[in-house]
Amino acid sequence: MSHLTILLPFGLPPPELARDLLRELKLPALATLIARAKTGQSRREFDDFARALPHEMWLASQFSLPAFAAIGTDSGHEAQNSPALACATMRALGLNAEEGVWFMLNPAHIHIARDHLVLTDIRQIGLSEADSRELFEAAAPLFADVGRSLVYGNANTWFMRADDWQELITSTPDATCGHNIDIWMPKGSGDQAWRKLQNEVQMLWFAHPLNERREMQGMQTVNSLWLWGGESAKAAMPGQHEIFNLPHGFIGLSQYAKTVHANASAADIIAAHPVQGLLTLDRLIQPALTGEWSSWLQELQTLENSYFTPLLQAIQEGRLDSVSLIITDSTHVLELSTSRLALKKFWRKPALTRLLP
Question: pTM (2 decimals)?
Answer without folding.
Answer: 0.93
